[in-house]
Structures are given as C-alpha cells and as structure tokens.
Amino acid sequence: MPRIAYLGPEGTFTEEALRLMEPDADRMPCATVGAALNAVRSGEADGAVVPLENSLEGGITTTLDEFAWGEPLLITAELLLPVQFSLLARPDTEMVHIKRVYTHPAAITQCRGYINRELPDAFVVSAPSTAAAAQEVSLPGSPYDAAIAARIAGEHYGLVEIAANIGDRTDTVTRFVRVARPGTLPEPTGSDRTTLVVFLADDHPGALLEMLTEFSVRGVNLTRIESRPTGDGIGRYFFHFDFEGHVADARVGEAISGLHRICGEVRFLGSYPRADGITTQIKPATTDAAFTEATTWLAQIRRGGL
Amino acid sequence: MPRIAYLGPEGTFTEEALRLMEPDADRMPCATVGAALNAVRSGEADGAVVPLENSLEGGITTTLDEFAWGEPLLITAELLLPVQFSLLARPDTEMVHIKRVYTHPAAITQCRGYINRELPDAFVVSAPSTAAAAQEVSLPGSPYDAAIAARIAGEHYGLVEIAANIGDRTDTVTRFVRVARPGTLPEPTGSDRTTLVVFLADDHPGALLEMLTEFSVRGVNLTRIESRPTGDGIGRYFFHFDFEGHVADARVGEAISGLHRICGEVRFLGSYPRADGITTQIKPATTDAAFTEATTWLAQIRRGGL
Amino acid sequence: MPRIAYLGPEGTFTEEALRLMEPDADRMPCATVGAALNAVRSGEADGAVVPLENSLEGGITTTLDEFAWGEPLLITAELLLPVQFSLLARPDTEMVHIKRVYTHPAAITQCRGYINRELPDAFVVSAPSTAAAAQEVSLPGSPYDAAIAARIAGEHYGLVEIAANIGDRTDTVTRFVRVARPGTLPEPTGSDRTTLVVFLADDHPGALLEMLTEFSVRGVNLTRIESRPTGDGIGRYFFHFDFEGHVADARVGEAISGLHRICGEVRFLGSYPRADGITTQIKPATTDAAFTEATTWLAQIRRGGL
Amino acid sequence: MPRIAYLGPEGTFTEEALRLMEPDADRMPCATVGAALNAVRSGEADGAVVPLENSLEGGITTTLDEFAWGEPLLITAELLLPVQFSLLARPDTEMVHIKRVYTHPAAITQCRGYINRELPDAFVVSAPSTAAAAQEVSLPGSPYDAAIAARIAGEHYGLVEIAANIGDRTDTVTRFVRVARPGTLPEPTGSDRTTLVVFLADDHPGALLEMLTEFSVRGVNLTRIESRPTGDGIGRYFFHFDFEGHVADARVGEAISGLHRICGEVRFLGSYPRADGITTQIKPATTDAAFTEATTWLAQIRRGGL
C-alpha cells in the first residue's frame, strides 16, 4: 500500500483527489505543498498529490515554484476534480441558526451568490483552508455555526451537509497531479501530456517566440504556458509549459531537445496520461513513423546513397 | 489635491508607493484591490495605486483579473518599489523580549533567514497584511511583541524600528501602477510601456505563436506575458502582455491592430512611462519615420505612380 | 485603337496572346522583349504584351530583369495561353516529303515524341524563334520542308497546318502580361494578383524568412517567388513575388508597406485581374472590413477611450 | 587519371573550370549539360563539370532541371570562375581589319561597352557558344574576323588574343560544380555548402515559409533559393536550395530531415567545400556538441532520470 502525501489537513479537496487517484493509498496529510513534496523527496512518502491549477484562480504558484526550484520530482498522473462546495454544520443545526460561517476566502468568493441569497445576514469569516474551517466548526464550543468546505470534510469531522454544490459556477475544476521520485515514466497512451520548466539563457527580445517555434516546427501543441518570476528583479521570468504528447514521442523529443539547446535550463517534470482522455491529433509529417523514415533516409544520404 | 485610492490599511507598501508617486494626494485606503479600483470607477476617487507584480511572488492575480474583467480603467504610471521589511515593536521593547512576531505569510517567507538567526525561539503568527500586523502590535494589550512590516507602518502606528531591511534578499521589488478612468493618455516619452489584455477568438493550436508574431513583425518587444484562466475550464486562458513602446507609436499601433483583428477581444490598459527609464531601442525599419515614409510610398503606388 | 508592342516577329505565341487580350489593337512587333517595353516607355506604343513565365521553361529571365532594372512600367493584365504547336508546311507538301524541319529548340524538346514517332528520319534544325522558322519555310527555295510553330504563324506566312497540337504534353502554358506606363491601376475585382520586385537592404541570414513573414502575418498568399542575381557576384539576389490580392486591399497594402520598411527597395509592378479567375480566399481577420474596424478601434484607444 | 565530362566544345569556360578543378583529368567534351551528366550516369565518365549559375545571368536552368529530374548524381566540389572575355583573331589580324565579330549572345551583352567603343562599325553575329565562335574563326576562309571567347579557346584554336578582359564588368563570375555518381561524400571541412531539391507534397499557402522555418530553427543559413516549374502548369514550382554546412553536421541533418517529413520529395545533391572558403558561423545552440549534449540529456530524461 503506497504511502501518499497530500496537502492537508484531512478533508481537503486534495484528499478527495487523492482518494480518486489512489483509493488504496496510505494517506499522509501535510501542512503545505512544500511539505508534501519534501516527504516524497526524503523517501518518507512514495508519492504526493498536490493541486497545480484551478479554472478560476489559475496556477497554484506554490506548486509551480516548488517544481521549478526544489529537488526534481516527476509528475506521473493528473486528475480534474470539480470543485463542489457544501454548507456543513454540526448535527441538528438548522438554516435559521446559521449566523457565523467559517471558510477559506476563495470559497467566499465562489459561493457569494448562495451566501447573499440564503444567508444574507450571516457573518462570514476567513479560515486558512476549507478543511480547517470544517474542523473548527466541529469543535464543541466553536464560535462558528457552519463551514463551507468539501463534502469529504464533513465526513471527516462529523458535520452534516446542509446544502450541496453551492458554488456560483457549477463548472469550476481543479487540476491535481500525482508526483513521484525520478524513475520509470508512465507508458505513452496516445493521450498524454508533458510538463516542462524552462529558464532562459539570456533574456533577449524574441526569446519566447523562439521557444514556441521549437514546439510548432515539430507539430507539438501547447496546452498551458505560465510565466513565473525568477526572483532576480521585475522583468525576469521563467516558464512552465504543458503540451500534448509524451517525451517518448519523436516529435516531443526533438522539440524539447531544441529547447534544451537554446535555453539556459530545461527541467522535465513528466509525461503522463491526460485526465480528459483526448487523443492527441498528430499531423502525418510528425508521427513517430515519419521521424523514423526520415532518420533512415538521412543515414542513407550521409553514406552517399541517394 | 487629487484623491487617490490605494490598497490599505494605512502603512502598507502600497501607501509607500502612492506617497512616492503622488506626494500631495489625498490618500484613501481601501480594503481590497477591487475596492480601490471601484472607487475610481464610481468617481469617488480620482485615481488608484495598486500592486501589479512582485519580483518574488509574481503577478498579483487580483489586480490582473480586475483589470481584465472589471469596468475599464487606464494605467497612467508605474513605480518599482524595493520591498524592505522592518522589525517593528512598541517603544521600550528590546530584542530579548520578542517572543511572538506577527506578520503576513509572504514576509515570513522572505525574512526566514533573519528570523532563524536573530529570533530562533520566537513564535511567528500569520496576519492578513503587514500593515494590519503593525496595527495589531500597536494596540495596548496585544498578544504580539513585534511586527514585520514596512517602515511606514511603524510611523503610522507609533512603533519603533528595531531592525531595518531584514529580508533575505535585498533586491526584492514590487511593481505598482497608478490607474485612472479612461481619458487622455500620458504623452510618449521614448521610454514607455504598454499593457494589454487579450482574449482569444478560438483557442486553436498556434494561437499564442500568432500573437507573438504580430508583435515581432513590427519590432515590438514583450517585457511580460502572463496567462490567466478565463474561468471556463482548465485549458482556457487569456493573456496579459506588457511591451515596450506607446500606443501612439506607429509600430505599436499596427501590432495591436493586428492583435485586434485576430483575437476575440483586446483590452487596452494603457501606455505610460517606464519606471526604469530605459529608452526603447527601435530598429530603423520600425521607427515612426519609417512607417510614415512607407505610408507615403503606398499612397503613391496606389495612385499608379511609381 | 491602342498601339501595342509585342515580342515578334508576326506569328509568335506572343502575337496570339496579344490578339486574345486586345483584339482591336494596332499590333507592333519588336525584335526583343526589351525593345517592346522600350516602345512603351518612349510613348511609341501605348502598351506591350510580353511573356513572363512558361510552365515548362520557367521564368522568362529577360522579362524579369527588364521589369526590375528598366524604367518602371505597370502590369495591367495577364493571360494564360496554352502552347499548342502545329506542323506547318507550304501548300501541297505531304508528310512523306518532310525531310528537314525548322523550329526553335524549345519546340524540339517539347515535340520530341511526335518527331520520333511521325518524322523519325527528318533532320531537325534550330531556329531563332518558331515564327522565324515559319517565315523561313514560307520562302520559295527554302531548304526546310516544314516548321513547328504556332498555328497563327501559318496564317501569317501562308503555310498549311499538317498536324495540330503535336506537343508531348497538352497542358503546357505560357503566362503573358500586358504592361503600360505608370498611371491608373486596374480596379480590384476580388480575383487579383499583384507583382513586386524586392531588393534586400543587407543580405543577412533570415532575410527571406522575414519577407515571407510580412506576407503571412497579413494573410497574403504568394503564388510565385523567383530569385534573380543582382549582378554583384554569386550569392547576391533580388526577388520577384506574385501574390493574391490587389494593392488597394488593406492587407496587401500593409504587407508591402512592411516589405518597403525592411527592404532596400520594393518596386511595385502592378495589381491586375487573375487570368484563372480564382476568387481570393480571405480570412475574416484580414478582410478590408477587419482592417477598417481595427483602425477605428485604434483611433479610439489612442484618444484614451476604451 | 579520372575521365571527366564537361560542357564543350574545347575552349569553353567550363573547360577552363575543369582544368582548375582537375588539372590531370582526361577531359571529355560533351555537346550539352545533359550529355555530360549522362556520361557520368552511364559510367563512361568518372565525373563531370557543369555550370550551375552565373552572377549576371542567374541559374543555368538546364543544369538545375537535370539535377532535379535525371538519375541522381552528387555534387562533390564547386568553383567560382571569373568570366573574362578575350577578343581573339587569326594571327596577323589587326584591330582595323575586324569587321565581323562572332560570339555567343551573352558575350555580346556583357561586352557591349567595349564593342561600342572599340569596334563601333563591326557587325556582331550570334554563335551557339563562345568556343564554337572561336573554332569557326580559326577556320581558313571563315567569314568572321574575330571571336569573343575565353582565352583558353584561343589557345585551342590557334587564335591570338588581341584584347583581354573586355567585359563591361570585371566581377562577373560563373559557379561550376563537379559531379559524381552517388558514393562517398566529401569530408566536412567547416566551410561547406549543401544543395537540395525539394518538391512540395501539396502546394498550400505558407509552404515555403514552413520550409524556411525548418532551416532557421536549426540555425542553417540559406545561400541560394531558386524556384523552377514542375511542368504541371503555371503556379506549380519546386525549389533548389543551397545552404551553409555539411549533411554530416547535426543541425543540417535535423533540418533536412524536417524538410523530408513535410515535403513530397527531397533530393540531396551533395555537401562539398565552399569555393570561397568562408568558415560557417555556427551559433552555440546549434553546434554538433550542443546536439550531442541534447541527445544525451533526452536519453536520460526518457529513462526517468533528471
């Protein structure tokens, strides 16, 4: 039974993601993304599940920066988890009793419509996390009457779900990834994604255009680009790229080798099956077969044969 | 005396930025970036100063999203402010008495070296903002002995600066912008920056490459690109661009007109003098004179003259 | 009745092209392409018809170079003329009598199948032009029994067409253009072609890629590119471009203005209806309407309106 | 002693080129470029020397088309030969006696200044080649008094050089290539050129831009591009490319493999030392060492190592 670290405490959306990705894991909650990843690095855990981006909030910068700067780890899987907030309270609490609500600020933002409509007079207080809010509400004598959190948090802390799916949007999604220590990569499936971090060698005009051209010439489609500061002053950035395909694919290998040549540093973060299962569309000129055929042709003309 | 809203409370780095940009302004602290910007939109304030990005933390996503989605506003100036943290306490506090420190989590991260070295036994607690931490410490009976905050916060709340510039890095910088309601643009100075938000018409492979090519063909150099989620699911992004030059420049005008034609929506956020004062290097083929000459030539050949 | 110079003598394919383009013209045969064009330049002729390229032989370099270096002229129309060779002889000549055939070397090459099959024992001699061959054969006492030439040459010189369309390929085509002194351009028709000559400012690596990018960014499709030596040594070239669209089109105007800015010299050779009548496919982002809309938008944001 | 075919008859500039390239060869004059190349193909000759382009006239289309369509051959060397015309006559001829001059039309064009100045009253007649003109003049009873040809033609046919270097330009150059049957390639020297012929798979808009991008992404600089008609109608072309570097170079190999994947057919015509001896400038990111290092890196990350 693998031991998998995750962003805790118990009852977070991350735990929910972990349960879906690894139902039989020995779950190890950690206080921060960094702590979860360090547990993998140190060998204390066999893997970790952490959030990478959210369809409303964007990239989880802690995760992005940990991947870029910390000891290298490999992403081996991803999951898209719908973010569904529940209103949770101690048993026997009724709607009319809810005067003080405790939850994370992102949940306040995302449930504003429900709160205004159903709890117009409630006082809403910010918590460090939705799971922490649920935990607090579960304590006897808590000053709060209800928490907004994942349903799973209610199960953990013995709270009742008074209302489900109370977010203003029903399509909010968080993307989680499972990471491991460097080792064997997941096999290509035809529906894969690869993630890289790229540091520029020198930040000249057109550097980003050159990077994108390395991808496009080999028919590799980007699915995400995110710039992050290097820390060395405003105007200095490094980049996260997600793109279609697996590092074992010839076109992906050539594209990232090109990046490796023109950039200061390329850190490979993994190739893994896409959560959405979409099959990668590959142009005839950039299939593995086309690359193999071109390699054979090149070897032949280099020997002087035509 | 213009009335300028800013991200408060009193004593924030934003206030420090505002004092440097508009020494004589009537300062109006607001609880959130959104509130500061809304004060401008409603006419309650004449302008606002808000943080846009930080050299360690990256883009301030609240600001980025407010600019993209809220009622349009114009950036009219920018400032680069070194982030210098001070250790602040009530008068007569000595170093040995400091057992509990209160500050914003970003400050904890950025002052970790100092804390470990000088206050190894102190208990450090997270505050909503550095200014709020200083305010709290200033209250008689506060459970905290010291705050880490901007020096200006000490002046506001009657605290003494026990140690100055205690951040681990001395080169951390935050970029602030001053915004106004749409109206007259700042004059071009030869050292200008322009900021745009761009929404794709349809998110096809190569769309970002096409956008960057619109810039490069007109010799316009990007200085920042930031992707943000549109909210419509993982994989859907819009983009913030900063680039050299002023919308009054011919090459900039043609480049962003090109973006306007190929993209779903381009929102112009302003052209304003660069805080670093670096003069834009323009290739001979993309000066205003070159554009004017080409326009004359085109008019002539369209009339059948050669 | 306009006086139109053409590449003579009477009976050339060029005359045939001229008759199709300008049935009522006063035809003025000239010894060379240069002479025909000079007749226009001097005012002696109102226009000229000259060959530009052939689907087997390629560009007619004399014409290309005359357009590039001579006093400027405008192309106002084009014609695609199938090259159909006839075997022409004096009246009463029968196939069995044909022992000596006279024609231009290109015709020898292009009718090799027919000659080998039908005239295996004939002696074939090179003539300066197919029309000159017909003229020679028409003379009493000519040493030649037949000419291979355009049917029109037979009509001119009183020869009988013994066999028609004897070329090995039935799809060979020559493209002719009608030129005039600079003046009013033909109106855009939606199915237009534009021709340019471009000299580089400095021949740096990537110069051609930059030129093609000026076209592609504005959605302008090339239909022909031809490099010609500048005369200043091996490795120095200038370029002929044909592309879809009319100089009056916004996207064409912007593209060639871009070329004009980055290149040493751009010589406009004309915009004129395509002979094949194919309607130019224009992407929504590069229609005239899209350019107009973008211009309006740009003017508005330059005034500070959003 | 290798037997080398060349474009004859004896006394041509091509013979001069051959003597410089292969002083000890057994020289075999041929009537046409095609005949010279066929002598190599059939094994009758060990190699051939033919002209490829001229700095005034441009590409020698016969040679270009032979390389593209005929049985494959390899270019193994190139030579740049200054084109120096001499006025040649039978012994004892004096300038005042020269009334009829015989030479190739290109020589007439290129020596027009000298002819007008020194032989204003002479009648100038077109010959099939400059060497043929010299040969004719050498015959007793020739109707011509002088030929304009290469000095070497005078040596061959016993003519005296009355005036040397009489061309209007002193810098005209013809580029010759030596070809062989497919076999061992010349070794890379650091100053190499490679020649290709490329046929498009489907002639879509942007196809040429895509081809050039395959080169530019690998830092390969073009030195010549020439379009030639495929024969299948106006608007259908194939391309000749010359570029810096040797097929054994990693960046060249990857670039032409890319072309091979995206194009209908790529025919390799050879890698050989540049006649001008210019050392290829290679950017650090595209040296062989950079490619090797990237290959090692890729293998490592594909194994899951980071």
From TrEMBL, chains A, B, C, D:
Domain ACT as annotated: residue spans: 196-273
Record domain Prephenate dehydratase: where: 3-181
Keywords: Amino-acid biosynthesis, Aromatic amino acid biosynthesis, Lyase, Phenylalanine biosynthesis
Protein's pathway: Amino-acid biosynthesis; L-phenylalanine biosynthesis; phenylpyruvate from prephenate: step 1/1
Top-tier EC class: lyase
Pfam families found in the cross-reference section: ACT, PDT
E.C. number: 4.2.1.51
Stored InterPro entries: ACT-like_dom_sf, ACT_dom, Chor_mutase/pphenate_deHydtase, Preph_deHydtase, Preph_deHydtase_CS
Site feature Essential for prephenate dehydratase activity, where: T174
One GO location term (cellular component): cytoplasm
GO molecular function: prephenate dehydratase activity
GO BP term, pick one: L-phenylalanine biosynthetic process
Reaction(s) catalysed (UniProt annotation): prephenate + H(+) = 3-phenylpyruvate + CO2 + H2O
PANTHER family: PREPHENATE DEHYDRATASE P PROTEIN (PTHR21022), PREPHENATE DEHYDRATASE-RELATED (PTHR21022:SF19)
Name assigned to this protein: Prephenate dehydratase
Gene source species: Nonomuraea endophytica
